[in-house]
Amino acid sequence: MTNHDVFGAAQRMQAAGTPYAFVSVVRALPPASARPGDKALVTGDGRFEGWVGGGCAQPAVLRTVRQALADGRARMIRIAPAEEGSERDLGDVLEFGMACHSGGTLELFVDPVLPMERLVVIGDSPVAQALAGLAPRVGFAVSVVAHGADAGLFPDARAVHANDDAAALAGAIEPGAFVVVATQGRRDLQGLSAALSLRARQVSFIASARKAAVLRESLKAAGHDAAAVAAIVAPAGYPIAALTPEEIALSVLASVVAARRQAVVDEAVVTSAPAPSSCCASAEPAKPVAKAHSCCHG
């Protein structure tokens, strides 16, 4: 397989959402069978597309690829004649022993390529439009779900579903996505019901705490699992005193990115009370801006 073929395989894997590692030979000492510049795509299930050395090198490569796909970090490895199965961390390179008779030494760079995280935006509100436009710029593949949605309002979305019925979405959206409900008063309950049907990694709801509490009770009364309802993040977003749709989208997206990165966030920030805003119908008594919640819009 030529390097051109490898790049073509990479495009196909990315289009299919298949995680893989791009493995390149950086240095080769004879009698290694690979040469500097040789490349391969390697998947976690052991599929090799390309050439980076023979069967003796492949176990160490595959082991490293699986580690890289698990934590998203690139690695430099060296495979050299030594006791089979030996391993040494030399700081900038991880060295594996290879007991093959052919000998030779290979140094390879293992670079993981992971599929884009998926974000489902439910609703066609101005905040939903802003969120769908901003999220792809930080690495999310966006799908939009809204009753009667106009796809033209979401030029950056990969898919727009114009039916928010849970049954209609079955099979259309794979489990494990982040979901943000940005209905803002238009089909809130339907949007939340659809979100709960998607087996999401996290569901966030852009609304005031008061409104979210009322809708949580409605969801439970409708038969939704109480634990799943309680897990809805609402109000969504970080307290940046946002007012415009774009600012609110930024606040919400920042919290989703933190969840994606499994960031450790100060509990006081996460649970800070919503503050008044010109857009909150149920404004509470004024609080300091530091405690304002950005996403009481609902």
CATH homologous superfamily (4th level) name of the largest domain: NAD(P)-binding Rossmann-like Domain
Largest sheet: 7 strands, mixed
Which topology of the largest domain does CATH recognise? Rossmann fold
As a percent range, the share of helical residues equals: 25-40%
Strand content of the residues, in percent? 15-25%
Strand order of the largest sheet: 3-2-1-7-4-6-5
Helix-strand category: alpha/beta
The value of Rg in angstroms is: 24 Å
Describe the structure.
The chain contains 9 helices and 12 strands. With 298 residues, it is α/β, with parallel strands linked by helices. It has 2 domains: 3-113, no CATH class; 117-291, NAD(P)-binding Rossmann-like Domain (Rossmann fold, 3-Layer(aba) Sandwich). A 7-stranded mixed sheet has the order 3-2-1-7-4-6-5, sandwiched between helices. The chain has a 5-stranded parallel sheet with strand order 10-9-8-11-12, sandwiched between helices. Helix 5 (188-197) links the parallel strand 11 (178-181) and strand 12. It is elongated, with a radius of gyration of 24 Å. Residues 263-295 have low confidence and may be disordered.
Outline of this structure?
It contains nine helices and twelve strands.
Highlighted features:
298 residues; alpha/beta; 2 domains; seven-stranded mixed sheet; five-stranded parallel sheet
Strand-helix topology:
Layout lengths: L2 H14 L3 E10 L9 E5 L4 E3 L7 H14 L3 E7 L5 E3 L4 E5 L6 E9 L3 E6 L3 H9 L5 E6 L13 E3 L4 H4 L8 E4 L6 H10 L4 E4 L3 H13 L4 H5 L14 H16 L6 H4 L28
Parallel strand pairs: 4-6, 8-9, 8-11, 9-10, 11-12
Antiparallel strand pairs: 1-2, 1-7, 2-3, 4-7, 5-6
